[in-house]
Amino acid sequence: PERRPVASMAHLEGLNDEQRKAVIHEDGPLLVLAGAGTGKTRVLTTRIAHLLITGRTRPSQVLAVTFTNKAAREMLDRVAQLIGGAADGMWLGTFHSVGVRILRRHAELVGLKSNFTILDTDDQTRLLKQLLQAEGIDDKKWPARVLSGIIQRWKDRALTPNKVTGEDAGEFANGKAAEIYRQYQTRLAEVNAVDFGDLVMLCVTLWQQHPDVLEQYHRRFRHILVDEYQDTNVAQYLWLRLLAQGTRDVCCVGDDDQSIYGWRGAEVGNILRFEKDFPGAEIVRLERNYRSTPHILAAASHLIAHNEGRLGKTLWTDVKEGERISVRGVWDGDEEARTIGEEIEALQRDKHPLSQIAILVRAGFQTREFEERFITLGLPYRVIGGPRFYERQEIRDALAYCRVTVQPDDDLAFERIYNTPRRGLGESALRTLRLIQRAQRVSLFEAARRALETDELKPRPRKLLGDLIKSFERWRDMLDGINHVEVVETMLDESGYTDMLRADRSPEAEGRLENLKELTNALQEFDTLPAFLEHVALLTDNAEKAGGDMVSVMTLHAAKGLEFDTVFLPGWEEGLFPNQRALDDKGLAGLEEERRLAYVGLTRARKRAYVSFAANRRVFNQWQAAIPSRFLRELPTGHLAESSDAGLYATYSAGHHAGLREQASGFDYENLGVTGRSAFGGNRSRTRWRDETFDDRRAVEGDKPDLTVGQRVFHQKFGYGRILAVDGNKLDIDFEKAGPKKVLDSFVDAA
Ligand code: ATP
Ligand code: MG
Question: Which chain regions cross the lipid bilayer (predicted)?
Fold first, then answer.
């Protein structure tokens, strides 16, 4: 028989008393309730290691869940490090990944086969649309995407079709939403598929209906650990409660101040109810913060103290002073990106690894300006929790429209948007086009033109395709006379693309519309559509070369649980952060959730936090004056280093800023089409005051003389050089230090 060596307790070294107590606690349920950076996750991983090292358990008896794949990976690494090897057989993952694993094993019991597929939201919507149509429900009035969101919320609350009441279902689809939900679940089973929400909900159903199966898991999982407990929704909570009936060893860790998924049905109440749910529970509070400097900690604590609904807690650190939090006002988003780029380069020169730097934004669209800046600077970056801006689905779709308009022979682009949004052009018509394309060696677009002159297509696709081709020709003609930004706006409106997104009330869709708006902002920086497309092509080309040490760019939501030496928090403006929806909210709930997000953001920083706000944001064709976020006022001045950029901003902040604060009412998202008829229509004119500042600024920039061959110039990244050739907006320059390079003229100034 194998002899177990006397376990080393090295993993307990360095823990403080409370942490140690939580790690070795043996009798019964345990809740670690503590602020950011106090070592909750560390306690959790050390606790797993402790269970294994002391031989109290085998890896297969441990179940640990957390919220993101990244967090799960980091926890696994951490445990492996502590025990000096992989914990084979341990279940450590997200609720979803563990859910899939369980469902595959017992698929038949919930009416599936074990090789079921997991649908994405597009598939989900398509299926719902079919069901709506079959019921004779007008899916213009009651869009499938909206229903998909409603069903998702039901699933977040573990409401199976049987449990949905008339009240839950409301008016939607003439009161038939619950019925369609039932059909949808039946249909999913028929095609052997599940959606994301099922991964948790079906486990609950499975265990409720098959106590014997639940018992298997009770026998298996002797130790259950949950990170970020404050963000569990009802379905996840039920899931846990059922599993936890089998053991008293349940350890949850969380922080009520970091509950940021209320909008996805998370119930911070779960954490407050822990003692009731798990009788005899021990509650450990951790107060020492190991992550951040006192300035960062003080600022975050002070800010979060403005929330009413909280448990309240003290945090302290004995880290040395460190830098104050930098609060910077800039002129606009462009300047914000430039300043942050410069700061990162300065850090890089001081040998700070880029992987220790993060930019945390409130909304996905904000990443665009940073991405472009980083690409210009040659700073490697990665977008965490989502694709890079120009790789996002809606951006690629919009770019595909632009590409076909400029260059109809772009087959890849044409195929991409041929039936997006769905316009009833199916595979069979496309097959016909492909045949013509091959036989006559022409592009798909040209094939379509030719097909329209024949009877190869059935009347309906022929009509639809004819409309599409005519539209593209019209947009192309418009480019001759009308500003290209407007043409793109028209294109996205007339093609039905924005309508498609607008019909979708989910938070994701709102983000997509914002991304499209941001795309038009990017377009403004170019004189023509082809110049813009070229710019994008160069960007994507550049981006692929990045590797290794990189700056992280992500939303605040995606940053939960992570930490970085340096954190940049841009866009602290009313209407952006806190976002407009929270401001429109009658109650305080929305605003308090935004404030918790700000707390999460600040507490990601170990050493340095840089908060910034812009005085102006360009949204569509308009410049909008922005007012600094109320959260800035809630930071304690004694811990801040405030600065405003010299130059324009200072000039205006002295003269006009007082007026600006009075006149501006934050972002005018109302006019951005989220609610209006046309995403790109509405009020295009800028207010007079904003107009003036806009034009003044342009005049300053407009002074840039034409660039000619032989001229000596200065490039932001490569320094001085001489122009060898000019090709549209691209320049070949022989740089004095960097050698010959192809660059865009917008980054070059006469020396
Ligand atoms: P969050 O609420 O943000 O998820 P957390 O409470 O989970 O934070 P951890 O990420 O576990 O905090 O810990 C924060 C940092 O402090 C980590 O770098 C961790 O390694 C370090 N840390 C935690 N406890 C100790 C300790 N006893 N000694 C030294 N460093 C520690
Ligand atoms: Mg944590």
Answer: none
CB 209 within 8 A of CB 215: no
Closest ligand 1 atom to residue 16 Cα is 27
Active site residue 228: yes
Tell me if 595 sits within 8 A of 307, measured CB to CB: yes
| Active-site residue flag, 737 | no
Task: Please give the annotated binding residues for ATP, written as ranges.
Answer: 34-41
> 3-state class of 453 per DSSP?
coil
Identify the residue whose tokens are 């607008």.
Answer: 502
For the residues of 603-637, what is the DSSP string, one character each?
TTEEEEEEEEEEEEEEETTEEEE--B-HHHHTS-G
Of 55-64, 192-201, 242-251, 376-385, give the lowest mean pLDDT range: 376-385
Give the separation between CA 51 and CA 59, rounded to whole angstroms. 9
Distance CA 64, CA 710 (A): 65
Does ligand 1 have an atom closer than 6 angstroms to the CB of 488?
A: no
Tokens of 694: 């806009």
Q: Is 114 in the pocket of ligand 1 (CB under 6 A)?
A: no
Of the listed ligands, the closest to the CA of 285 is 1
Contact 363, 514 (CB under 8 A): yes
pLDDT 10s digits, 225-238: 999 999 999 999 99
Structure tokens at 202: 């079906």
Residue 693 catalytic? no
- Which amino acid, residue 273? R
Identify the residue with better confidence: 289 or 651.
289
At residue 667, the pLDDT reads 29
Residues flanking ion ligand 2, Cβ below 5 Å? 40-41, 561
Average pLDDT over residues 342-354: 95
Provide the 3-class DSSP secondary structure of residue 330: strand
- Assess whether 566 carries a catalytic annotation: no
* 3-state helix, strand and coil shares in percent for the chain, rounded to the nearest 5: 50, 15, 30
Packing angle between helix 484-494 and helix 393-406, nearest 10 degrees?
110
The 10s digit of each residue's pLDDT in 9-64 is: 888 999 999 999 999 999 799 999 999 999 999 999 999 999 999 999 999 999 99
Instruction: Return the H-helix or E-strand segment holding 176.
Output: none
User: Of 604, 607, 617, 630, which is the active-site residue?
Assistant: 604
38 lines ligand 1 (CB under 6 A): yes
For the chain, give the percent of residues with pLDDT over 70.
Answer: 87
Element (DSSP H or E) covering residue 742: strand 739-744
Rounded average pLDDT over 551-575: 95
Q: How far is the CA of 384 from the centre of ligand 2 (A)?
A: 17
Provide the b/e sequence for 161-185 (b: ≥16 CB within 10 Å): beebeeeebeebbeebbbbbbbbbb
Q: Is 94 in contact with 65 (CB distance < 8 Å)?
A: yes
Rounded Cα distance between 267 and 428, Å, is 48
Q: Are 532 and 338 in contact (CB under 8 A)?
A: no
CA distances, 227 to each of 21, 44, 72, 531, 730 (Å): 17, 7, 10, 48, 51
CA–CA distance, 449 with 463 (Å, rounded to integer) = 12
Residue 686 CA to residue 693 CA, distance in Å, equals 11
